Amino acid sequence: MSSNDMKTTEADGDVVAEVELVPYSDSFLKALVRLWRDSFEEAVGIIDPHPIEDQKQYFIDEILPNTDVLVAVIGRKVVGFIAASRDSIDEIYVHTEHQGQGIGSKLLSWAQEKSNGKLELYTFERNKKSQQFYESKGFKVTERNKTEAWMLDDIKYEWVRA
Fold first, then answer.
1. 7, 97, 99, 157: most buried by Cβ count inside 10 Å?
2. Which of 77, 82, 113 is nearest to 97 (CA)?
3. Which residues make beta-bridge pairs with 78?
């Protein structure tokens, strides 16, 4: 198994699938944006009012040119992704059915390894699962604000390599 592969296990320890981390390609676009939308709505508890086509265009115009994107797949199914630069994480999502299996940790480790030793990211105050996840990975709260676009309280986190 290469460093970009990992086994996921059920509670009883049985291996159920192999996750592969691969660079983004255009063939992932539709599934990735759908996963992003579904995971966001579940985590934040709101329905995104923007058309999904606008979100796809935002990903193409803003995320791809400014970050490296790594995709977690099981077989041919997209189960997670991260979009990160050397100093920040713009997006990190794991499909709700695959959370708690180490996929987010693997994606986050990739970003930390390629970072300049410091990463920042934002999450919404109401997304308690993500707060617990980031704090368990050594991220510290540095700021609290309200986002203009969503009119929701958000938290800025920072991680510094020890």
1. 157
2. 77
3. 73
pLDDT tens track for 87-138:
999 999 999 999 999 999 999 999 999 999 999 999 999 999 999 999 999 9
Over the chain, what is the mean pLDDT? 91
Q: Where are the alpha helices (DSSP H) in 2-144?
A: 29-44, 52-58, 64-66, 103-114, 128-136
Structure confidence at residue 5 (pLDDT): 52
133 by DSSP, 3-state: which? Answer: helix
Q: Is the dihedral angle over the CA atoms 43, 28, 55, 72 positive or is it negative?
A: positive
**How far apart, in whole angstroms, are the C-alpha atoms of residue 135 and residue 59?**
27
Cα–Cα distance measured from residue 36 to residue 31, given in angstroms and rounded to the nearest whole number: 9
Q: Specify whether the CB–CB gap between 144 and 153 falls below 8 A.
A: yes
Q: Which of 130, 39, 133 is nearest to 78 (CA)?
A: 39
Could you give the CA distance from residue 26 to residue 110 in angstroms, rounded to a whole number? 21
Residue 3 CB neighbours (<10 A): 10
